[in-house]
Amino acid sequence: MRTIEIFDTTLRDGEQSPGVNISTNEKVEIALQLEKLGVTRIEAGFAAASPGDQKSVAEVAKRVKNATIVSLARAVKDDMDKAYEALRNAENASLHVFLATSPIHREFKLNMSKEQVLQRAVEAVTYAKKYFKEVQFSAEDAARTEIDFLKQVVEAVIKAGATTVNIPDTVGYMTPIEYGNIFRELKQVPGADMIRLSCHCHDDLGMAVANSLAAIEGGATQVEGTINGIGERAGNAALEEVALALETRKDYYQATTKMNLKEIARTSQLVSRLTGMIVPGNKAIVGANAFAHESGIHQDGVLKNVTTYEIIRPESVGFKSNKLVLGKHSGRHAFKEKLIELGYHLEQEEVNAAFAAFKVLCDKKKEISDDDILALVDAKMERG
Ligand code: KIV
Ligand code: ZN
Predict the structure, then answer these.
(1) Which reaction equation describes what this protein catalyses (predicted)?
(2) Which residues line ligand 1 (CB under 6 A)?
(3) Assessment of whether the complete model's pTM goes beyond 0.90
(4) ipTM of this complex > 0.95?
């Protein structure tokens, strides 16, 4: 069983979600919770982006003791100097330096040749190594980079001392098979087995988690992502989904994380509250409906044995229990259980009459509350 390292970038790429701005104190609160969650690397921000970000990275670096604290930097000395300043008091620090490698970025954004990109990447890693033992290099837009050139860059930055090389799918363009194959290729690069090979996926086509899992199959040893999948545009790979996919399908992936899964619900709720980004009800693992059953057939199955319709126990990710939601698709079995939970022990005939009244009410209301059921049964009883 392989252990996959988790690199959380909620405080950096996650904060790049349009409209999100996390204060220094809030960043510290989230970072401390991420540490409880068992994340081993926390990207606290982009120190050169603003004085506020530099302060946040410094504060997180001061307060978090076990996880490695990371600051992002462009491949320019001033950015790396600012990151170094911010990370001065960290128990464990790492610099994350990035430079785009794809033809589109080389031509339209950087106006640099392949040779210039290669040289700048090596110079940046060499400079960063003066300050940091741990240096991560990211080839921005790696997924759209010519594979032979990407291999050249990866080999060169490893030689320059990079301890992690990250292969971002910056614009969420990959399919799982394509992305997994990039990692299979990069595994062949000299020195690749001595470093962390990291994946970083965006969700533009809704494949960030699938692509991250494909990268693990292809040989990635680190996964980057955010809590609740927040991030630039459509967001990043949701770390709670990656962790649960590995845990639930250990038999298939033969890989696990060191995450304390019971802290997932609390972490998700904290990030949602402090970023103001609402978690959709149908979001996997942490959505309000992730462990709710409405259909009568499903409710009957779950009441007989939860494994009929649940592949994850809600308690295992920190929720109290599953929910049987009463609505028009619900059946007699769940309705009767609800009556017992509310303190009624009715004869079967009384249950049948209350159930019929409940179904009529369901056509008028989307979700039926406990108070609705109390009112309905009491009215039935009064009428006899
Ligand atoms: O998506 C991306 O390419 C990034 C890099 C800065 C790692 O976020
Ligand atoms: Zn990103």
Answers:
(1) 3-methyl-2-oxobutanoate + acetyl-CoA + H2O = (2S)-2-isopropylmalate + CoA + H(+)
(2) 13, 72, 98, 138, 140, 166, 168, 170, 200, 202
(3) yes
(4) yes
